[in-house]
C-alpha cells in the first residue's frame, strides 16, 4: 500500500524544473498523496500539477499575504493539509565583508521571515485538524552543522529557521503537529548547477562523506516522505540525509582551492 495514500501535501519551492521541491512533490505523489505545488513560476507549476494530477498555486514566501492565500488555497483544493514542505532557498555565496545590505535583506526575507510566514499559516490550519494535526518540514542545510566558507548570511538565516521549527514542535505538538528540519549537503540541482561545473570542486567534497557519495534530491525526498508518514514518531529534529557529512565537516577554502588547482593542472596536461 502507498505510504501516503489518502493524504494531502503542499510543497512550496517547486517552481524550477527538476529542483528539490519538484523531486519531493513527485515522490509524495508516487506514494499516493494529492499534492499542491507552489512557487513563483506559473507555467512550470502548471505543468507539474498536470503531471501529478494535483493542484498548483502562485506564492512568494516573503509575502505574508501570499503565504496565507496559499494556505487557504490548499484547504480549498485539498480539504485538509496533512503535510506542508518548504523547499525554497537561495544559495548566496558571499562572506560577511562582501554581502550588501540589499542581499542581506533579501536572504533574511526568504530564509527566515518567509519561513515564519509559512509556519504561521500552516500551523493555524493544522490546529483546526486536531488531534490528527499534520507534518511541517523546512529544508535547511548541513552547513548549519558543518560550516563552509563564504556563506555567513545563508548559514545564519538557515540556523534561525531551524530554531523556528523547534519552537513550533514544542508549542504545537499538543495538536498532533510534527515540525522537523531536513538538511541536505552539497546536492546537484538547478541551484548548484554552476558549482558542479567547476573542475575539481566535487572532488573536494567527496572524501567528506563516509558513505562515499554526495547526497541526492531523492535522498532528501525520501527523508521527507518518512517524516510525513505515520511511521515517524518524530518532531523538533534536524534530519541529515547527507551520507554522514557532519561527521567530517565540509572542506574549507584551502581544500577547495587545492582540489580545483589539481583539476585545472590535469586538464592542461591533456
Summarize the structure in words.
Helix 1 crosses helix 8. The protein is globular, with a radius of gyration of 19 Å. The protein has one domain (8-192, 214-246): 3-Layer(aba) Sandwich (Rossmann fold), CATH 3.40.50. It starts with 7 loop residues before the first strand and ends with a helix. It is 47% helix and 12% strand. A seven-stranded parallel β-sheet has the order 3-2-1-4-5-6-7, with helices on both faces. By secondary structure, the chain is an alpha/beta fold. The chain has helices spanning 20-30, 42-52, 64-78, 101-127, 152-172, 193-196, 201-205, 217-228, 245-248, 253-269; strands spanning 8-12, 34-39, 55-58, 83-86, 134-139, 177-182, 238-239. Helix 2 (42-52) links the parallel strand 2 and strand 3.
Summarize the structure.
This protein is of the alpha/beta class. The chain has helices at 20-30, 42-52, 64-78, 101-127, 152-172, 193-196, 201-205, 217-228, 245-248, 253-269; strands at 8-12, 34-39, 55-58, 83-86, 134-139, 177-182, 238-239. The protein has a 7-stranded parallel β-sheet, sandwiched between helices.
| CATH homologous superfamily placement | NAD(P)-binding Rossmann-like Domain
Strand content: 5-15%
Rounded to the nearest angstrom, the distance between the terminal CA atoms is 53 Å
Q: Tell me, what's the shape?
A: globular
Side-by-side strand order of the widest sheet: 3-2-1-4-5-6-7
Please describe the biggest sheet, giving its number of strands, its sense, and whether it closes into a barrel.
7 strands, parallel
Number of beta strands: 7
Q: Might you state the CATH topology name?
A: Rossmann fold
Q: Which radius of gyration do the C-alpha atoms yield? A: 19 Å
CATH architecture field: 3-Layer(aba) Sandwich
Percent helix, as a range, is: 40-55%
Amino acid at each position: 500500500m502507498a505510504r501516503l495514500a489518502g493524504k494531502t501535501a503542499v510543497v512550496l519551492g517547486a517552481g524550477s524544473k527538476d529542483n528539490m521541491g519538484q523531486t519531493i512533490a513527485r515522490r509524495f505523489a508516487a506514494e499516493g498523496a494529492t499534492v499542491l505545488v507552489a512557487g513563483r513560476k506559473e507555467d512550470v507549476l502548471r505543468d507539474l500539477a498536470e503531471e501529478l494530477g494535483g493542484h498548483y498555486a502562485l506564492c512568494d514566501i516573503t509575502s505574508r499575504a501570499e503565504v496565507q492565500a496559499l494556505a487557504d488555497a490548499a484547504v480549498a483544493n485539498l480539504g485538509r493539509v496533512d503535510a506542508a514542505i518548504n523547499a525554497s532557498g537561495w544559495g548566496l555565496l558571499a562572506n560577511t565583508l562582501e554581502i550588501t545590505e540589499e542581499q542581506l535583506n533579501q536572504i533574511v526575507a526568504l530564509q527566515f521571515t518567509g519561513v515564519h510566514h509559512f509556519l504561521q499559516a500552516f500551523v493555524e490550519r493544522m490546529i483546526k485538524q486536531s488531534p490528527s494535526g499534520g507534518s511541517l518540514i523546512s529544508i535547511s542545510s548541513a552547513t548549519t552543522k558543518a560550516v563552509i566558507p563564504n556563506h555567513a548570511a545563508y548559514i545564519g538565516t538557515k540556523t534561525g529557521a531551524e530554531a523556528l521549527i523547534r519552537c513550533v514542535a514544542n508549542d504545537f505538538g499538543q495538536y498532533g503537529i510534527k515540525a522537523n528540519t531536513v538538511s541536505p549537503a552539497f546536492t546537484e540541482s538547478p541551484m548548484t548547477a554552476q558549482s558542479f561545473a567547476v573542475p575539481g570542486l566535487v572532488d573536494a567534497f567527496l572524501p567528506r562523506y563516509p558513505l562515499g557519495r554526495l547526497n541526492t534530491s531523492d535522498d532528501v525526498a525520501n527523508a521527507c516522505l518518512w517524516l510525513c508518514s505515520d511511521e515517524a514518531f518524530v518532531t523538533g529534529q534536524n534530519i541529515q540525509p547527507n551520507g554522514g557529512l557532519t561527521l567530517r565537516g565540509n572542506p574549507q577554502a584551502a581544500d577547495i582551492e587545492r582540489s580545483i588547482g589539481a583539476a585545472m593542472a590535469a586538464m592542461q596536461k591533456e
